[in-house]
Amino acid sequence: MHWAWPFEARVGNGRDEEANCSFTSDARPDFLCVGAQKGGTSWLYQQLASHPDFWMPPIKELHYFDKLSRTKAVPPRPRDERDLCFLERIKSLRAKPHIALENYARLFEPKGAFLSGDISPTYSMLNDEIIERIVSYFPNLKVIFLARDPVDRSWSQLSMGVRLGMISPFDVTDSDEVIRNLLNPGVFSLSHPSKIVARWKRYVHPDRFRIYFFDDLERNPAELRCSILQFLGSDPEKPSGRLRADHNSDANRKKLRLTDKVRSRVAQFFKDELKACAAELGGPAKEWPARYGFSLLYFFAGLADNLDLFVWCDWVA
To answer: What is this structure's pTM?
Structure first.
């Protein structure tokens, strides 16, 4: 599933005249976080929103490029005039039937001299045309992707979907039922980080693209926080208010029970993707296949390839 909305025709200045707010700054986002859903994006938003170098929009997930911000989320209570201006402008943008990049950029005008960005995990499903247009319009845009083991990530998404009523309850011990839900386009498309990263890397300069890992969020959140803040041009020594680096607002959320049998079946379902992540994402992703006993398959597959090559060379000789 790759979202596709028409872009605004380049006629006139394209500016939204309905929400005139008196701010003077470079109106543009400094970064996008394009996923992964259930990969730590809420943690990231909370860390940045509480950091003194950032002004973050009052809405975590803007969903502009995939849903034109037409979501059912309850509007937050504005904290100040900047939030009021942002909410007025995004309300006006929702009424347009197309993507208007200039007006989207002006959503970030209230940031002033602070850093700001858009954390919308479903941007991982955007198609090449939209990604190319975004990156062309914002050539200095930094892009972050928080990668997570597809088995754990997809199960966390299923748990959230059932909890919020977006997915009908199902028998979590029935492997066929589980696979049927994994094939839901809204789950399946978000569960292939190697493809998502490859699509974004085609258009974003390597210096402005970073992959981070949920594994590191679990192991050392303070170090991960420091790395992300440095990449975004912020001071990692400054605290995010009273928020600890290991703060997890989802820690007590109810999750579906994952049995060993079903976990093994889900791992088989994602076997090729686990291999692709290990090869293409590197870092902690290199450990993912071994969690499900796929390491020996790498060895024997490589051995078979080398044996075939040896036999072929011997035959040619």
So the answer is: 0.87
